[in-house]
Amino acid sequence: MKNDMFFFYEGFHPMFIIDYNSFNVVNINEKAKNLCNMDLSKVNRIEDFIPYVNIHIKDKIKIDYILRNKYIFHSWFDVYLKKINLENKDYIWIQLIDVSRYKTKEEEAKYIAYHDTVTNLPNRRYMDDYLKVIFNSAMRENKNIGLMFIDLDNFKSINDTYGHMAGDEALKTVSKHIKGALRKSDLIARFGGDEFLVILEDMPKIEIANSVAERIIEELQTPIIVKEKKIKITCSIGIGMFPEHGNDMESIINYADKAMYEAKRLGKNTYKKNY
């Protein structure tokens, strides 16, 4: 134990020793003092620095935490907990290892995996996961959900005429216009190519979805600039409602997709909620 205590005081990582029963801090090393910006006399319970640590007290485990001190300093740590015995009394040895740089890279990778690289909107993978959550919630709470399938009209001609880089810039601008027409609670994702999906949560009546669709169409009446030329891009929108048009997300997406094609058949630049 003497070697362990030398390691405690001279170690490279912040360490705490807390009472096994009360979770009060009984000792901290210099690294922990610097991290918490206070000495032992001002440190009380370990939960002030590591939330809910008491529920993880076992013989020896590793967990992830974001540590917060009174200066709102946020950092990711691996937290190692080990039960020890000093002079016939049980304590918990806590060691913190900063993994913030790895977590930052992990979060960046996760963001890239779930967002479209052109528009920076959530992508289809993100939407698939998100839909599962909100559909389960809607079924439990007996709520309505609106879903819009949006397809840009004749967008291929922009790529063909001005090139794909110009097409990408047009997609960025159009996505911002669509997003600007939505409510704060709505979510838009790029579904693929020139297609977008909009989720309208907690929709008590179809008229709300109609109003949102009308705002999107109106928003896109303003021409955008593509290669120094003004181009008007319109869209066709299909609306599906849960549970009116299906009992699962795949059924609702298919319904909205067919309604969107009906809008195109009727001349484009409009929306349909049935087909």
Automatic annotation (TrEMBL):
Residues 143-275 form the GGDEF domain. Transmembrane segments: none annotated. CDD domains: GGDEF (cd01949). InterPro entries: DGC-Regulatory_Protein (IPR052163), GGDEF_dom (IPR000160), Nucleotide_cyclase (IPR029787), Rev_trsase/Diguanyl_cyclase (IPR043128). PANTHER family: DIGUANYLATE CYCLASE DGCT-RELATED, GGDEF DOMAIN-CONTAINING PROTEIN. NCBIfam families: GGDEF. This is GGDEF domain-containing protein.
